[in-house]
């Protein structure tokens, strides 16, 4: 899933925990806490589905726009065909802040679709989204049809207030022509191999500036984010008590030192100049699509962007390389996804649940959504359905999703605040403002834990 910026006829909303969501984390926390106090109450127990003769209209709010909203609406039409007594009012361009404001104002949609999985901890802990456990138990929904890691990132502290609606998986993209030109026959599997190939694939202009980056090591640029890289080093965010452990887990230092080696190879000033001239991540002049980056990390949705914006680009995909010290991790990756739930105070919760269950467990619905949105379906049956469209490059991500080693960032009661703090730290580190890496990471732990305590953690 990609963000809500329109790109070449498709709306973009990448599922890596996007910068726009991180910037809005502070306001979302306050709004969600308020929502638990001001939204309408919810009756005890699951609400019954409307009878076949009972005409009901339910409102569905989602972040989708343009082409992606059309895809969703076609699938909603399929639900209406099965339930002609339930009419759906689909409202697109509704991000988490807008949905939260509606909940807080006592006028929530019946169904909410969020592109920000990391906000789930807020939704569940504040009560802004209803607990779906009673519905699942009543209707005997088998959650084992959903991969374990996906089950984990759609619940918080034992409370399931959301169901998964497609996923994004991150892996490596590489330019096949640039590989051939350099005599490279296979993608790297370890970070040392990635470093070596990055140097071999890099081209400099006569003035010493970067012409083509073998691999762009700048965090916050393109899809480079700490949470996308961390699984490949085996780095963990929190301990069992939810305390930040970046300063205790040596994998974080290994990751940052690996990055700094590449930053120093290019030179920070040259990287700043180079990234300033790159196209936006979800625009038609994306740096990889324009041949300015030879290797990168990105989600499966990029195959759709390339198909639309750079159909002549010859590229391959593979799992992203892992730490040399942990080769057994090869095949892991970062996973996140769209979530769907029933807001507190929903007028037609019984009918809303029927739609939520349909969209998240019906194989035909999931395959149609996956084919239209170019995202990974979130049930085993849909993942292996023969109708699921899959190019050679896209299949890499389907295989990754089948890997039990996939990693999601842990939900937190203050949402993405800990991720934004880590990214802010990364900017200081890569630009040379941090001298004591271990000490700085321990200070970051204290900062994250203090913010979590203030945010309700």
UniProtKB/TrEMBL annotation:
InterPro entries: Bact_solute-bd_prot1, SBP
Subcellular location: Cell envelope
Main location: other
Transmembrane feature ranges: none
GO annotations of cellular component type: cell envelope
Keyword Transport: yes
Gene3D superfamilies listed in its UniProt record: Periplasmic binding protein-like II
Signal peptide: 1-39
Family membership: Belongs to the bacterial solute-binding protein 1 family.
Described purpose of this protein according to its UniProt entry: Part of a binding-protein-dependent transport system for a sugar.
Protein name: Probable sugar-binding periplasmic protein
Protein species of origin: Saccharopolyspora elongata
